[in-house]
Amino acid sequence: MNRIATPTMRRIPGGSRPKPPFRSRWRGRLISLLLASTAMADAAPIGEFEQAADIGRTARAGSSEFRGDHYRITGGGANIWGREDAFHFLSRQLSGDLAFTLDVDWVGTSEEPHRKACAMVRQGLEPDAPYVDIAVHGDGLIELQFRATKGGLTQGVRTPIKAPARIRLERDGDVFTGSVSKDGNSFQPIGAVSLALPDPVRVGVAVSAHNAANLETALISNVQLTQRAARPDEKRVRETSLEVVAIETGERRVIHRERSTFEAPNWSPDGRLFYINKHGRIYTIPTSGGEPRQLNTGAADKCNNDHGISFDGRWLAISSNVAPDGSKIFVLPITGGEPRLVTPLGPSYWHGWSPDGRTLIYCARRQGNFDVYAIPTAGGDEIRLTTAEGLDDGCEFTADGTKIYFNSERSGVMQIWRMNPDGTQQERVTTDENFGDWFPHPSPDGKWLVFLSYEGSVKGHPSDKNVTLRLMPLAGGVPKTIATLFGGQGTINVPSWSPDSREVAFVSYRNVLP
User: Fold this and answer.
1) Of the candidates 184, 204, 206, 201, which has an alpha carbon nearest to the alpha carbon of residue 47?
2) In degrees to the nearest 10, what's the CA dihedral of 419, 422, 423, 424?
3) Could you tell me the CATH number of the domain that includes residue 344?
4) Is the pLDDT of residue 204 over 90?
5) Do 282 and 423 have their domain in common?
6) What residues contact 284, with CB distance under 8 A and at least 6 apart?
């Protein structure tokens, strides 16, 4: 990426001005936007940025100044939230991928804990324009905020990490990633969202007082703004991150990242290794981080992302494509070796071990319908457990062996269900049809259920989608979001709880320039 050249330093004058008594709301917005546009056209560059202006309805004028090693930005306005915003914006116009990193400090104390200083990428200068930002609040809260459509509602993803901290907002194509660092070097994810903002966009620092009658001032330092536009012949490459999220706090850590596709982390019962699939083979990665090492799976060299470890930690079940039937299930020692075929029929996709290790459960297509089946680990006849039309998938035993959780589209939207191990007493667990819920995973301690959620309109479980990981008590309750990311297929297809039930492993994606 190329560093943006620093233009001549100038100051935009500040001061107060009364709010004009406009006759109507739409007229007020129009005049405010015209005034802002005129001010920006006449303004001189400030540090790395081109222009500054008040956006939306601000009763008092903001100001921007560059003082050699930091920016002093004063803003008014009621908020950056909801369907429209009001703030002071120091920005420049850019196209292509970018990375925007900065530190925020507030001047003085305030009675407004939610005054905001933001690293922002915005479609335009209208108060209701689509945008993505990382907002540092006056009380230390840090949040990834975004409005997907003009005039739409703002959504937010919070991190448990509090300011002071360094923030970074990155754009790779349509994917925006927020991250934060306490030490200024190692960054932890806040979240990511795919949002279409056609080029060019406005990139800069926004300050809102969170009180229309006030002005608040932030000092912005250590600013790094880099950008790169793709060449006509360049193709993006997949970047995959193996992450861990703490279910109590929502804090996320990146364990491993590389520019290729890998999927579906299992967490070994001894807590030492992750097992992933990559390019048809199974690999291990130390939970402390490190490079993947290929596991010997013998002749099974077309493994997909349906694999998992027995409760006693001795065996690994894998699913590998076998012509002409498709995926079949094999079992091999956890340390590697020649696999033994368990399911003679295909396609069959492994999803769960019974706690005693004697039974495997899986999704299989038979007579054109996908259902949940069980089979003895030693081999034998398979038993059909579900018979509903449509797809039943993602089956997994609870740690005590009393229930099987699975996802089913029998209600018209993919939702989480559960049943007894013999297939009786099938009952629905999730009911919000705004979400399509996949791949339920009960925690080892029997307290929690984590699963993957798409927007309700998404069919199947494709990759490259806005998804969330949601958590609910196994006994029942309202799900809560613990991670927002760009992912889907391969993110959390298989059991991925830590042995102590405190964390969950998953993968997220970005499509980056080479």
Assistant:
1) 204
2) -70
3) 2.120.10.30
4) yes
5) yes
6) 273, 274, 275, 276, 292, 293, 295
Is the CB of residue 420 less than 8 Å from the CB of residue 404?
yes
Read off the CATH number of the domain in which 198 is found. Answer: 2.60.120.200
CA distance 192 to 175: 7
Q: Please tell me whether residues 97 and 22 are part of one structural domain.
A: yes
Continuous segment of H or E residues that includes residue 85: strand 84-85
pLDDT in tens, 330-387: 999 999 999 999 999 999 999 999 999 999 999 999 999 999 999 999 999 999 999 9
Annotate 44-55 with b (16+ C-beta within 10 A) or e (fewer).
ebbbbbbbbbbb
Contact by Cβ (8 Å): 506, 495: no
Residue 183 and residue 103 in contact, taking contact as beta carbons nearer than 8 Å: no
pLDDT, one tens digit per residue, over 126-164 is 999 999 999 999 999 999 999 999 999 999 999 999 999
Q: Residue 413 and residue 408: Cα distance in Å, rounded?
A: 8
Residue 43 phi, psi (nearest 5): -80, 155
**For residue 61, which of 204, 221, 207 has the smallest C-alpha distance?**
207
pLDDT in tens, 376-425: 999 999 999 999 999 999 999 999 999 999 999 999 999 999 999 999 99
Mean pLDDT to the nearest integer, 108-113? 95
pLDDT tens readout for residues 298-337:
999 999 999 999 999 999 999 999 999 999 999 999 999 9
Dihedral of CA 463/101/144/130: which sign? negative
The answer for residues whose C-beta is within 8 angstroms of residue 216's C-beta and 6 or more apart is 74, 75, 76, 106, 107, 110, 112, 115, 138, 207, 208, 209, 210
Whether residues 266 and 298 fall in one domain: yes
- Count the alpha carbons within 13 Å of 184 in the hemisphere toward its beta carbon: 8
> In the chain, what percentage of residues exceed pLDDT 70?
92
Q: Domain tally for the chain?
A: 2
Q: Are residues 173 and 299 both part of a single domain?
A: no
| Of the candidates 428, 494, 481, the residue with the CA atom closest to the CA atom of residue 455 | 481
Q: Strand 116-122 and strand 201-208: pairing? A: antiparallel
- Any idea which residue has 């005034």 for tokens? 35
- Residues 223, 244, single domain; the answer is no
Domain final position from 206, 228, 250: 228
| Statement to judge: residues 433 and 479 lie in one domain | yes
pTM: 0.90
Q: Are residues 214 and 317 in the same domain?
A: no
In total, the chain counts a number of residues equal to 514
Choosing from 180, 204, 228, the residue where a domain stops is: 228
- Token digits of residue 244: 């861990």
> What number of CA atoms fall less than 13 Å from residue 107's CA on the CB side?
15
Q: Are residues 339 and 480 in the same domain?
A: yes
In what order do the strands lie in the sheet containing 326-333?
Answer: 308-309, 315-322, 326-333, 340-341
Task: For the chain, give the longest Cα–Cα distance.
Answer: 82
| Structural domain boundaries, residue 103 | 2-228
